[in-house]
Design brief:
Blueprint lengths: L3 H6 L1 H10 L6 H37 L5 H33 L19 E6 L12 H8 L2 E2 H8 L5 E2 L1 H20 L4 E2 L5 E2 L1 H7 L10 E2 L5 E2 L4 H5 L6 E3 L5 E10 L18 E11 L4 H18 L4 E5 L11 E9 L4 E10 L3 H6 L2 E3 L7 E2 L1 E9 H11 L7 E2 L13 E2 L4
Parallel strand pairs: 4-9, 8-14
Antiparallel strand pairs: 1-11, 2-3, 5-7, 6-7, 9-10, 10-16, 11-12, 12-13, 13-16, 14-15, 17-18
Length: 425
């Protein structure tokens, strides 16, 4: 969400930011509706002020014993006119809000311009890519051959884009979640949270999924939405709050099930665990002061990288271009893990700085030290990591010629000391 006052003062900068997002200039229509709103609001105030003057005549006329019916009628008409103008102002105000609600955040200056993921900027790589003496398989072949990954039965129960994990793979998914949470809470100063997985409209509006992306979400008959990521409940913990300066930054992490309709992904990753309707993810969220959010963004990215390093999984970091940037983000780093079965890097974490974009929608503020007024906080979020995709990466990078999978050293304590996953273990 944008500050309408800033758009009034900086229409060219606003339009330039929208143009980088691939949108035509938006300020003209927005400022026209805003001007009509302010005009109606001003007229309503003027009508009220004039009526107050006129109303004083009623007592004077009655005191003189004169007829005040004409003035009384004029006051009544004035009240009606004021109500009409206030209704018009409210309608126009809501129109402005609706226009702003569907516009994406403006990219930071250092975000590269581009149209697709092909224009993203690679920043760095880590880890050596393993050389296999056999043709590496993709995760679904590995898991099915082990007898521990079942897409067919999941489809019978729930349809496409679901999976059943059994035995050691079910335990490994649990182990990965615990390992990630332990690192984030024990080493990186995040507070673990177990949030609701069902939220109301205003929560998804606050983080930017509504109103524009409702088709990507699942909604219950009772009116709740199933969360697409723990970013939604974690960030909304500060919705409507005025935080103390000393309480910032606030850092939260959670492992939750996430639910996505994947409405726009027809034909993409239809086999396997890369793109599913239900998946688990460990999320990081930070609430910061404006002047520290850029540093927090780098810090959170490093936290996600540390998980991959501990698991010895090769990856690269890319900065998303303007055409690939998420709706609420002003800057995003993607971590892409190497998948030998696909012979490519695939996204495993996306870490974004949203600035005050979400905070304005949520009305989340803080009181700077020594100041009377308040400012909007900055919000950041990132995967730390997508658990299912991390499982995929472990299977593909640690696979052996005989079909077994070596358990990474960092996970062995969480796997009861198991060193190798073999068929039906």
């Amino acid at each position: 969400m944008f500050d309408i006052k800033w758009i009034r003062d900086n229409p060219e900068a606003f339009d330039a930011g929208m143009k980088r997002r691939g949108l035509d200039g938006q300020s003209g229509d927005i400022l026209k509706a805003d001007a009509e709103y302010r005009k109606a609001q001003t007229e309503a105030q003027e009508v009220q002020a004039e009526r107050n003057k006129i109303a004083k005549q009623i007592g004077v006329l009655k005191a003189k014993g004169e007829d005040a019916s004409a003035v009384i009628e004029e006051v009544a008409q004035s009240k009606k006119r004021q109500a009409e103008l206030e209704d018009k102002a409210k309608e126009l105000s809501e129109k402005v809000e609706e226009m702003l609600a569907v516009l994406p955040n403006i990219p930071d200056d250092d975000v590269p311009d581009g149209a697709t993921e092909d224009d993203n900027e690679e920043l760095r790589k880590w880890g050596g890519i393993r050389e296999f003496d056999f043709e590496p398989k993709q995760h679904f072949d590995i898991g099915e051959n082990l007898g521990l990954m079942d897409f067919e039965t999941a489809a019978k129960i729930s349809g496409s884009r679901f999976v059943i994990l059994k035995g050691a793979l079910a335990r490994m998914e649990r182990a990965l979640s615990s390992f990630m949470l332990d690192m984030h809470t024990g080493e990186f100063d995040f507070t673990e949270v177990n949030p609701p997985a069902l939220v109301r409209d205003e929560a998804l509006y606050g983080t930017g999924q509504l109103p524009k992306f409702s088709e990507d979400l699942f909604k219950t008959e009772q009116g709740h939405w199933m969360i697409p990521t723990a970013e939604v409940p974690l960030t909304n913990m500060v919705r409507g709050e005025i935080l103390n300066n000393s309480s910032l930054p606030q850092r939260y992490t959670a492992m939750t099930w996430c639910f996505r309709a994947e409405a726009g992904s027809a034909g993409k990753d239809t086999r396997g665990m890369i793109r599913q309707h239900q998946f688990s993810k460990v999320e990081m969220v930070a609430i910061t002061k404006p002047e520290t959010s850029a540093l927090e963004h780098e810090r959170m990215t490093a936290c996600a990288e540390a998980i991959l390093k501990a698991l010895m999984l090769p990856y690269r970091v890319v900065m998303l271009c303007t055409g690939d940037l998420g709706f609420g983000a002003k800057k995003t780093y993607d971590l892409e893990v190497w998948l030998p079965g696909q012979d490519s890097y695939r996204e495993i974490s996306s870490v974004s700085n949203c600035g005050d974009f979400q905070a304005r929608r949520m009305k989340a503020r803080y009181r700077p030290e020594g100041e009377k007024g308040t400012q909007f906080v900055h919000t950041l979020n990132g995967s730390g990591l997508a658990v299912g995709r991390t499982l995929v990466a472990v299977l593909e990078n640690y696979q052996q010629k005989d079909g077994s999978v070596i358990v990474p050293e960092a996970l062995k304590p969480y796997m009861g000391g198991l060193e190798v996953i073999e068929a039906n273990v």
